[in-house]
Design a protein that fits this description.
Radius of gyration: 20 Å
Helix content: 25-40%
Order of helices and strands: EHHEEH
Strand order of the largest sheet: 1-3-2
Oligomer: single chain
Structural class: alpha+beta
Shape: elongated
Number of strands: 3
CATH topology of one domain: Arc Repressor Mutant, subunit A
Number of helices: 3
CATH architecture of one domain: Orthogonal Bundle
Largest sheet: 3 strands, antiparallel
CATH class of one domain: Mainly Alpha
Length: 82
């Protein structure tokens, strides 16, 4: 049984994420959080398909959200019924 590793390049990642190739390249350049971590192979950015799927599942489940800053809100006052 041999495992096949599928490498995804910019054009395929753009299709998986529903974005343009230009936005993916700009995201790589800026280091945005909505892109999974990539590696370079032969001078081109690449991703493993399973890593992309895992990243998307984590994003869906809210694991990539920034923690909310500030103090917790108190319960608002209510009118007492006598």
């Amino acid at each position: 049984m041999s495992e096949e590793i599928e490498v995804v390049k910019v054009d395929s990642l753009a299709k998986m994420l529903g974005r343009t190739e230009a936005s993916i390249r700009e995201g790589i350049r800026r280091g945005v959080a909505w892109l999974p971590p990539s590696f370079k192979m032969g001078g081109k950015h690449c991703w493993l398909k399973e890593d992309v799927r895992k990243f998307l599942r984590e994003f869906r489940d809210g694991e990539h959200q920034k923690p909310k800053l500030g103090r917790k809100r108190k319960e608002p006052p209510s009118l007492r019924v006598a």
